[in-house]
Design brief:
With 512 residues, the chain is mainly α. It is built from 25 helices and no strands. Among the domains are: 162 residues, no CATH class; 117 residues, Serine Threonine Protein Phosphatase 5, Tetratricopeptide repeat, CATH 1.25.40.
Length: 512
């Protein structure tokens, strides 16, 4: 709840604050025609096809406008609903007590807190919601297909639901294939594409280097699960050689983890446990960048769905452990009876009750620890200046963090420091267009218009970035060359016909 007072950060500004498409429910059709990112006057971007996310933003905007409270509030509500659905799912193959505990651990887990408090991560919350509804309604073919389609329209990662649904029930095959076919038709007719991700280190790495990085990625996700202390964002790193301790060190720990899991699974012989373990492994594999490189090496948001599989395995293990203890205890019921009911308990009865109490005490301590860690983490998401400043301390060098922290410093009036961070961002990733535009704004504020113009043009040369066009248009207008500004505005408005700043400048120019 302490995240409700947090503001908008990072992609929130492009998907919510600066996105005119969400400001009216009449734009409902637009949501299915493009992605979630606004292009600054050229409609929605064609990548990241997630129409359900845009529709969700429209609904929240209708009630709260651009008040960040509403977006955080509804995201928490959706997260809690997911927790209830996880309880219902786990209760199908584990005792309700342990299903409840594992659902609670998942709800408060700080390793996935980013997904709940970061408004731009609502796609993961939504596809998880619809995916859980599809699983719970497996006996109803129509609803299974409908919820799967909604999940796919919430985020591309929902593709992981296709094998999971088929593993749970082969009878879901017609519904799964129908929903997948309809989703493919949506993508085909809207001509949306998979965005080209080639700026992050992991996207530039070879397959061999991504393979070397795999054990470190898996190990760090395990670290987030068992010890979520060092939480950060925008992680860009790659293991380049076999001698790197991140390869063999994490490799040994991951191998031990997998061996222990396999021994336990073979011992309890529970089909549902195997299914949930496969769920966990496939979820991590999807975000490992081994086959399809993502725009970052590691992200807490990507653990949101796989963690359900892990919690499912633990629920079954707790259930099996306590059931085994119960079976060894002759004459003991499913609850711990007192001596006033049956006289003095036997040694076995006392041991059974003690084991159950120890389990509850352990789980209570885990929930308290995770809750406190989540509360502390939520404060770090209060605003961009705090978030990026803290992340820079805890993350490997990141071109995104350097740029974003510079933006926050610029807004606070610390122009000199902002410029230093923009320059660091350019050094880390010379092909990224944002820091060139932002550094240009620094030089323009300092009165060096020639350098500012050069940087704006460098930004535009890398991609048609609307802010660079806006800033350059303002700069050219100050210079007073009518022919130059007219030519530039005409070119810019062809690319961004709905851009408010460029249209205002054009009207002012004509008025003169």
């Amino acid at each position: 709840m302490n995240s409700l007072g947090n503001g908008f950060v990072w992609d929130d500004e492009v998907q919510i604050v600066g996105n005119p498409a969400i400001r009216s429910l009449l734009n409902f059709g637009q949501a299915f025609g493009g992605g979630t990112f606004d292009t600054g006057g050229a409609g929605l971007a064609k990548g990241f096809y997630r129409p359900m996310v845009t529709i969700y933003y429209m609904l929240v905007y209708k009630v709260f406008g651009l008040n960040a409270f509403g977006y955080h509030f509804f995201q928490i509500i959706l997260h809690l609903i997911n927790g209830i659905l996880i309880f219902k799912l786990f209760s199908q193959f584990a005792n309700e007590k342990w299903a409840g505990w594992m659902s609670l651990v998942w709800i408060v887990h700080s390793g996935i807190s980013k997904t709940v408090v970061y408004a731009a991560s609502v796609g993961d919350v939504l596809y998880t919601l619809f995916g859980l509804l599809a699983l719970i309604n497996l006996k109803k073919s129509f609803w299974t297909g409908a919820f799967l389609l909604l999940a796919l329209l919430s985020k591309e990662s929902a593709i992981i639901l296709i094998p999971i649904l088929l593993i749970f029930s082969k009878k879901s095959m017609p519904a799964v294939f129908s929903a997948t076919g309809m989703y493919a038709m949506f993508r085909l007719f809207t001509q949306t594409n998979i965005p080209k991700l080639d700026l992050a280190l992991i996207t530039q790495a070879s397959f061999y280097e991504r393979f070397l990085t795999l054990s470190s990625i898996f190990g760090n996700y395990l670290r987030l699960i068992f010890w979520p202390i060092r939480l950060t964002i925008s992680q860009h790193w790659v293991v380049l050689n076999i001698s790197d301790v991140r390869f063999w060190g994490w490799g040994v720990l991951v191998a031990l983890f997998l061996i222990i899991c396999l021994i336990l699974l073979l011992k309890i012989k529970n089909k549902s446990a195997w299914i949930m373990f496969i769920w966990f492994l496939m979820g991590i594999a999807l975000v490992s960048s081994l086959i399809v490189p993502l725009d970052g090496t590691l992200d807490e948001t990507w653990l949101y769905f796989p963690l359900i599989g892990f919690m499912g395995v633990v629920a079954i293990l707790f259930d099996h452990l306590n059931e085994s203890t119960h079976n060894l205890t002759v004459g003991v019921s499913s609850r711990c009876r007192t001596s006033s009911e049956y006289g003095q308990p036997t040694i076995l009865q006392s041991g059974f009750c003690r084991d159950k109490k120890l389990s509850v005490i352990l789980l209570s301590l885990i929930v308290i620890f995770l809750s406190l860690r989540t509360i502390i983490r939520n404060f770090e998401w209060h605003d961009g200046l705090m978030l990026y400043g803290q992340a820079i301390k805890n993350s490997p060098p990141s071109y995104e963090l350097e740029n974003n922290y510079g933006v926050e410093l610029f807004r606070k009036g610390d122009i000199l420091q902002a410029g230093n961070h923009f320059e660091k961002s350019i050094q880390l990733q010379p092909r990224w267009w944002f820091p060139y535009n932002n550094l240009g704004a620094v030089y323009q504020r300092q009165g060096d218009f020639a350098k500012a113009e050069e940087l704006y043009k460098k930004s535009i040369a890398r991609v048609d970035y609307y802010l660079a066009y806006e800033n350059l248009a303002i700069l050219l207008q100050k210079r007073g060359d009518k022919q130059e500004i007219e030519t530039f505005l005409r070119e810019a408005l062809q690319k961004f016909p709905q851009n408010e700043v460029l249209n205002t400048l054009a009207r002012d120019f004509l008025a003169r």
